[in-house]
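Sorry to interrupt, but I need a hand with the structure work. Can you supply me with one protein entry, sequence and fold together? No commentary is needed, just the two lines. Leave the record below and I will have a look.
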Amino acid sequence: MIEPLPPEIRALIADSEDAQWRFEKEHAGTWSPSVTSDYEAVFAVLSALPRREGLFLEWGSGFGVITLMAAWLGFDAHGIELNPDLVEMAEELAERHSLSAAFAAGTFLEDGAGEDGYAVLREELASFDVVFAYPWPGEEELFLDLFRRGARPGATLVFNRASGGIEIHTAEGRG
């Protein structure tokens, strides 16, 4: 059974849903509605990690909800998002909820389109203790491969599959 979300996290999610609705209304025709993670399930998994400290990274952070939940839990939280408008929205959400997180407008993919998000954050993938990803269908293996090749040994990937379910992977090292 998943424990009820803390009131602060419920408020964060409600605020993000309102911001998302406004954003999608303002960008109608130029923006495809986003699909959000199962926030309760992700929060439960992040809360159950043996270490809730260190560096956290969300790939494709969107409105920043997962990144901000990680910050609330005590992580030094970071998000990389390709869309600079969403980065701005995530930063505003962080400010409204008095949460500290760093967001970068850029890409987390090798040879991806856009500015290198790691360079913006002044970090590299191997710096992070926990990475969260919610890839679009068909991107799952790409994301898993990126994590396996770039994460430091012992790092954790919290992987929300588009088909449903959350998996945890641990990096064994580069090879």
